[in-house]
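TODO from last week: model F5/8 type C domain-containing protein.
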Amino acid sequence: MRLNASAPPRSTTTPLSLVLTAVLLLVGGLLLALPERAGAAADVLISQGRPATSSSVEDSTFGPEKAFDGVSSTRWASAEGIDPQWLQVDLGPSATVSRVKLVWEAAYAKAYRVEISTDGTTWTRLANETAGNGATDDWTGLTGQGRYLRVYGTARGTSYGYSLFAVEVYGTPGGTTPPPTGSFTVVAAGDIAAQCTASSSSCAHPKTAALAQRIAPSFYLTMGDNQYDDALLSDFRNYYDKTWGAFKAKTRPVPGNHETYDPAGSLAGYKSYFGAIAYPQGKPYYSYDQGNWHFVALDSNSFDDAAQIQWLKDDLARNTKGCLAAYFHHPLYSSGGHGNDPVSKPVWQILYGAKADLVLNGHDHHYERFAPQDPNGRATADGIVEIVGGMGGAEPYDIETVQPNSQKRISGSYGVLKLDLTDTTYTWQYVGTDNQVKDSGPTYTCH
């Protein structure tokens, strides 16, 4: 709306000062009636390039990051035919949001909400659409503060899914307040589901799953080789799903080498079983935050993939958290049968440069913890603590060649890692399926 105002001719009965005052009051009143117009000039785009996640993706070419990359021809697309679906962006702590612009593809939402949250769990509604018709929706005059913003679709406008070329969030970026406080627990294990069930007394993964569930953590990590032997989708359904699948929705997995053996294609069964849980950013590697921790989940089968390495560098450059953990299948250092795996060294160098605190691995079927060390295996106080936790259910491996800086090794006892993390520290226990603590790690302060 264009506003025009002009003063009447000057007369002896109407002083110029009164006319000017009236004009200013008129314009001010109109601006107050249209707050979104009054604040539009101050709007700053704060979402471009920020970390994004989604409930699902149609395939890896339509990842959630595509809606925030500033490229008009790329887009996020959800799985087809399913309600509800959501797309979420991390704006940084305490961002203030005044405007959200949505550019829909043909697969639009007939009904959706725009919501904001400080913790990614409790959401406050900023806008609500019940009769959407696609194209562009520009929500202005909003007042919201939080870290995470999401578009939550409840009814599709077509028979397909939801698809957005762009989600543009405007306001004031976050990062000016201290990180959230509090502690949380994570359960982690690798090398999990052998082809057996609870009907066999020697089958271990039903026991590690029961233990993991009793601990009741905030979420679960897996460090690859989730399903043996060739990680077929049918095997995931017949074995893993019957045990660790009970808390699948709270699991954040990575693939191992056995996930690449699937005759249907490398990672085919893994991707089909976990879906967006394992591909929240459209790739088999991703990141997320909890408290003052940043977690990076990587696919060590493809550490020679330049795209993954560049993504890792970019992700770490954006990180604002004080503590950093990474997890992937192949350990750089191990005293087990597979031994040291140099494929992980370039990634260690990147993580070490970013002051990473903790690396979790599987591959060798034993438990082992190392003192802080650098990528070259030199003990140093500012090094990375590595834990091998491959005792989730697959047949144990013997300890063969003890590596420098290895502080504790356990083989033959199935169990899980119980990680206790705060905003500034971390420690852990290795708990056996007999509920006994087999080892306790030191308490370390984050770098």
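Done. Residues 327 and 360 are 5 Å apart (CA to CA).
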